[in-house]
Amino acid sequence: MTAKWGLRGLAFGYLGLLLLAPVAMIFYKTFEHGLGPPVDAMTSPDALHAIWLTLLMVAVAVPLNTVFGVGCALLLVRHRWSGNAVIDGIINLPFAISPIVIGLSLYLLYGTGGWFGPTLSEWGVKVLFSTPGMILASIFVSLPFVVRETVPVLQEIGTEQEQAASTLGASAWQTFWRVTLPAIRWGVAYGVVLTTARVLGEFGAVTIVSGSISGQTETLPLFVARAFENFDEQGAYAGAIVLALLALTTLLLMSVGGRKAKASGGSTPVGPGEVAISMSSAKEVS
Amino acid sequence: MEGHPATISTAPPRAGLRLPGVGAGLGRGLVGLYLSLIVLLPLAAVLDESLSGGLGAFWDSVSGAQSVAALKLTVISSLIVVAINAFFGTIIAWVLVRDELPGKGAVNALIDLPFALPTIVAGLTLLTLYGAESPIGLDIAFTRVAIVVALCFVTLPFVTRAVQPLLMEMDREMEDAATSLGAGGFTVFRRIIFPNLLPGILAGVLLAFARALGEYGSLILISGNIPFKTEVSSVFIRSQIESGDVSGAAAVSVVLLAISLALLVAVSLFARRGARK
After folding, report:
1. A15 partner at 20 to 30 Å CA-CA among A31, A77, A128, B180?
2. DSSP states of B185-210 as a string?
3. B5 belongs to a structural domain
């Protein structure tokens, strides 16, 4: 009995001190003087632009990585090939690489002295310190999620129904839309949620390629950092609250999506930790 | 014609779904192109830049006093952090799986918060509670302790999430048998439970370690970024970029990349061995 309470105490004490108390504290700090200050801080032109830009990152990066992720997962699971192991390994790279290194890599490729920089600037295309570079950074950091979530579900559902559909004369597209996609939808949805969360919150990679020009290349996480460094605590807290609320929504969707993915025959994705674990269990893939 | 929509109904039965729209060959080409443009070319540019001044310059950048201090701090803090989270992560997993507790679902969802919360917000929240204006008088800002706390926050879910499924699958009969043969609680844990959970703990530790090594966003506000004292490698790379030493930044990045790759390979070998058992 004492052992049980001891373990509970350790577990909840750790979670409380590390997670709950700090998050509760920032909510308290933000709304200490009522709703007015945070609302004012979030409706300033710079803040609104940061929110808009953050949503733009999501609007471009998430669909691209979703289409890539589903296609790539189909390729890995349904088409045996000796090169699949290599593709699988490359897809895991963004999980293991520091966001700062990712930012630097794009900086080097698209900077003035980089491989692509001079040619692109001749064509009048600005990648670094502008939106395209930030989008590339967002795509890079969030690349693995949809693939990692879709692969185990695809393995789980097998090919019987797809075979039945094609025997009955369905085209590849018809089979995909009517049979495969409905069966894997929760796995894909879970991957999409994780991708969105990562893109919304990305800081390190975006900070290197954006140049953090306020009102121009500043996403919400960058806005929070700059506000804090400029002693604009209200702005920093308000921005952080918006991001925290988005994170809590994500959490809710994750817990629902994870359950649904599990119920529909997926491989128990209890959380992104599981994503990371399952990334290496792609033995059937190769 | 493999994979062409028009021929799908005559495909061999075991083939299953073809990639719609494109054949497997074209599909591989597109995947390769996407991965090259997004991931491989940028990383190749880092490698190229790190060697732009020759191997000597590369070594000078990597072995500089500030660079070595940053790397040492990064590795040691990460080791401390994964040890802490291996301990607490396992306990949390245990309570979540074995303890009949109301409200367990909410706690279970809460575990993923560090993955969902943007890293800059994580740093800011820790700073409001454990910074200069701490309401409980605990000011750890700009110290190495702050680095450990921030890294504990961002890597919290890894071990718990790796151990949970193992605990769920574990056969309780083994424990009951051991107990009925007279084993005490600690012996059961040491001889039965711990060995069964070890693969999960190690997998979680490796992933948490990889994450901690490269962490940036949660540290930037709370660590103070003081060279030789609280400057981790990722922050050091950033400061080198800002001071114009891009080749030096690239050299240190290559070292971090090499460690990450080694960890990825370790995780993958480890998972493969676990799967074979």
Report:
1. A31
2. HHHHIIIIIHHHHHHHHHHHHHHHHH
3. no
